[in-house]
Design brief:
This protein has six helices and no strands. It is an all-alpha fold and 150 residues long. The mean pLDDT is 89.
């Protein structure tokens, strides 16, 4: 893997770890007001967005494959990544759920977010991200080296 790709991947992984840490702290809060709910909703969406950014970098830059950008782009990204074994089957359902949530959050429905539902689903999304990252570090051990050196 090119050094520039390794650096980009490690930066994305670090940013996702920070986002996940913030999400986990928020989940420990006993109550959320409407603004905290919206902010926590953004964190949850950002975890998935980070997964997409990593997958795009791996597919398009590292593996030099083109992803068509059409109305099914996000779904096609997950399908292509699965065919390339970029994430394990055990989190396929979680990633699909995160994609659906991302759509709701990103398309202006933040005011309608349900804090109880976020509180219920966010821990599963966080676990799925941890499994995703561990899978990547096993598949691309050179990423571990750059993460531990910085």
């Amino acid at each position: 893997m090119k050094p520039s790709h390794l650096e980009s991947l490690s930066n994305l992984l670090r940013k996702n770890r920070e986002t996940l840490s913030s999400l986990e702290r928020a989940l420990k809060m006993p109550e959320w007001n409407e603004f905290e709910t919206m902010g926590i909703g953004v964190l949850l969406s950002d975890v998935y967005q980070g997964v997409e950014q990593i997958l795009v970098l791996l597919i398009e830059k590292v593996h030099s494959r083109k992803l068509p950008k059409d109305e099914s782009w996000h779904d096609n990204l997950l399908s292509a990544a699965r065919r390339m074994s970029l994430y394990p089957d055990e989190i396929k359902r979680d990633l699909r759920g995160m994609l659906r949530y991302r759509h709701v959050q990103r398309h202006g429905y933040g005011i309608d977010l349900d804090g109880d539902r976020i509180r219920k689903n966010a821990p599963e999304a966080a676990k799925a991200y941890v499994v995703f990252e561990a899978h990547l570090l096993d598949k691309y051990p050179e990423i571990k080296d750059i993460l531990s050196s910085s």
